[in-house]
Amino acid sequence: xxxxxxxxxxxxxxxxxxxxxxxxxxxxxxxxxxxxxxxxxxxxxxxxxxxxxxxxxxxxxxxxxxxxxxxxxxxxxxxxxxxxxxxxxxxxxxxxxxxxxxxxxxxxxxxxxxxxxxxxxxxxxxxxxxxxxxxxxxxxxxxxxxxxxxxxxxxxxxxxxxxxxxxxxxxxxxxxxxxxxxxxxxxxxxxxxxxxxxxxxxxxxxxxxxxxxxxxxxxxxxxxxxxxxxxxxxxxxxxxxxxxxx
Length: 246
Ligand SMILES: [Zn+2]
Fold this sequence. Notes:
The protein is mainly β. Helices cover 11% and strands 30% of the residues. A hairpin with a 4-residue loop joins strand 6 (91-100) and strand 7. The radius of gyration is 17 Å and the shape is globular.
């Protein structure tokens, strides 16, 4: 349900960046929308588990309630009210803040996964998992630098802006980045928003496809986190909602 942070390439001075971003914020999102391309990936749920489904996919124009979005979707939405959101891979808390993406004040949590955390031998050095629509009080104990384990409970699914009039969901957005330098600005709703000039959005499903690449190139098996499994050589992400074995 979030807007997309336009990526500006090249050695543009920060002041110019901020000026440009302000201009973009004030002028709508037409250019931003075109930057998010559907990946063609779709989730397939494991037969032996009951997994709370993804309710809105990456690059979708349809929201969880079936209505058309104002902006193309920058991540995936998932979860039922009260379900635990769990870490999709090992990493480090990068930021925790009180955000506002238009639906009201809420919690946001960003985890940085180094390439080595995910057992990837090449590609970008960093990946970010950003979780939005969380209850800030549930995440405020996290501090930047805290180590996060795969499957660790992060927060429970709640409503955007902690507002009863919205359907429950967690928004999960994944970025790849060549460096880890973040700058912060105030977004159009008066809340902090980060910026990394090397960061690019990816479909979270693409990170779930790394361990078991789909035979048809599209059907990504949702891999539940299993506390009893050995993940020392596992590539990429497991699912962000705990699944129950049937
Ligand atoms: Zn969303």
